[in-house]
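Researcher: Predict the fold of Sarcosine oxidase subunit gamma.
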Amino acid sequence: MAEPTLSRTHPLEAWTAAFEALPPAVRITAEPYVPMFDVRGVTAEPNTWIEVDGGRAVWLGPDESLYLGATPPPDAAVTDVSAQRIALRLTGGHVRDVLAQGCAIDLHPRVFGRGRSAVTTLGQAGIVLLALGDDDFLVLVRSSFAGYLADWLLDATLEFT
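Model: Structure tokens for Sarcosine oxidase subunit gamma follow.
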């Protein structure tokens, strides 16, 4: 008898069609799997992210960063936390408006522009938010909250559809 095979699916696979139906003013994409590592010893400035060795180091706290990339930086204390979070990419001219509906931080481009990050909440979900550009954000959410956050985001986009 052949051994059964398990197929890997993305936690937000069921939301793909709803995400694709959104207008260009607010686009949501479930990002493919990205290795993530909790890193001690390689840190960015508070509330920022920086590019390091082909990945991103996101400040989480004093002497602690979240590294997104295939190979963590050498000479650092590293813990693999890849299964902990998934990434959502939010783009479009109204993305800040959507985020502002459930996030208590100042998202104005002068305050939260490219290179900024925050450990915060969106709706009721804890997230790590990265500003990749003026209308381009990466939201990292725990896998167990991904469905809730996807529903929340789709609801928050209704006024822009």
